[in-house]
Amino acid sequence: xxxxxxxxxxxxxxxxxxxxxxxxxxxxxxxxxxxxxxxxxxxxxxxxxxxxxxxxxxxxxxxxxxxxxxxxxxxxxxxxxxxxxxxxxxxxxxxxxxxxxxxxxxxxxxxxxxxxxxxxxxxxxxxxxxxxxxxxxxxxxxxxxxxxxxxxxxxxxxxxxxxxxxxxxxxxxxxxxxxxxxxxxxxx
Length: 188
Prior knowledge:
- A hairpin with a 7-residue loop joins strand 2 (25-28) and strand 3 (36-39).
- Helix 3 crosses helix 4 (153-166).
- The chain is 34% helix and 13% strand.
- It has a three-stranded mixed beta sheet with strand order 1-3-2, with no helix packed on it. Strands 4-5-6 form a three-stranded antiparallel beta sheet, covered by helices on one side.
- By secondary structure, it is of the alpha/beta class.
- The radius of gyration is 19 Å and the shape is globular.
């Protein structure tokens, strides 16, 4: 978008040269006069998995128990060499291996599309827009949320449809509650 960004040395390839074509991802939007922060180690985020195409290993989030880590590792083993960089997220705990494999395939396909667009790019360009804030929120709340409340029927239907693609258990937690039925906020 014509804005400049800051790529920390730790997030850049070791052999980076001036004029080199490079795929970067925004990790922090610009604020208070600061430039956006970038990384040359992009991540394609899903609900149960995230894919780091340049990573050489699998990283597990801390709250996943050791026996669950082993189960997830076995599920990812069926991906063969393409399991590299496929990182379970908290909602992966207890997930069916078929769900994990389907999501892994979708994330790899998404990265392939991004990579093909990058290969054809002749000038700096956006390869993939950032996620919709609602999609990002629903992807990051995880299965432990008690309720997802929407103040319009349209928003509730959209949230429910999106949750069905992420986790059917989340879709059951979507409710419609008109704003007039909400508790008054502390600021009112």
